[in-house]
Amino acid sequence: MSDNGMIPHTIKPYLSKEKITKRVEQMAGELASAYIGLEDKTLFLVVLKGAFVFAADLLRSFPLNVRVEFCRAASYGTGMESSGEVRLDLPPEEVIAGRYCVIVEDIIDTGLTLDALINELLRMRARKVEVCALLSKPSRRKVDVPLNYIGFEVPDLFFVGYGIDYAERYRNLDHLAVVVPRDGGDPEKRDAKED
Ligand code: IMP
Ligand code: MG
Description:
Layout: E1 9-15, H1 17-35, E2 42-48, H2 52-60, E3 67-76, E4 85-89, H3 93-96, E5 100-108, H4 112-123, E6 128-136, E7 149-153, E8 159-160, E9 176-181, E10 192-193
Parallel strand pairs: 2-3, 2-5, 5-6, 6-7
Antiparallel strand pairs: 1-9, 3-4, 3-10, 8-9
Bound molecules: inosinic acid (IMP) and magnesium ion (MG).
Inosinic acid binds next to strand 5 and helix 4.
């Protein structure tokens, strides 16, 4: 088997399962206070693949009966930067139009993927778009994006686990870890940032 494009590395625990659970439950409570009474018009849009574990925990702590849909968003870039060219695969316009959309994302890095997604949802006549992300790396931001619900603000490191991958590995970890290169390389040096 090939190394799947990974550089030699180790992983180091960053946030425990218990700390994540506590924060995700708080976020579900904050969202419930904001969306109570709007259940019929609200859509949670989970960005695959990275947000799948976060969304599963968030939604099971969320008491309101809302619609849940999934989408794909992948930004292409060279090396460490995403180019802003984003490929989106969204539910049809009739599902988006007129609804309060809550984007459920894993990590907001440059913000380029999220910016493209928000613009497309508004073009599809979403009534309002809010963002709920597990992690945000503010120091990496290239475009100003509205973040309504943030789990943790994190430094410019490469995270894995709890649904988030490095070259399609480590999604199954029940906690968050950081990738530590063995040779000083950068784990983000790959051509496509897939969710
Ligand atoms: P952005 O367009 O630069 O904000 O890209 C965000 C996307 O890049 C995230 O949804 C992830 O899929 C990926 N990404 C950014 N940082 C990391 C990381 O630390 N680990 C794994 N994927 C990441
Ligand atoms: Mg993502």
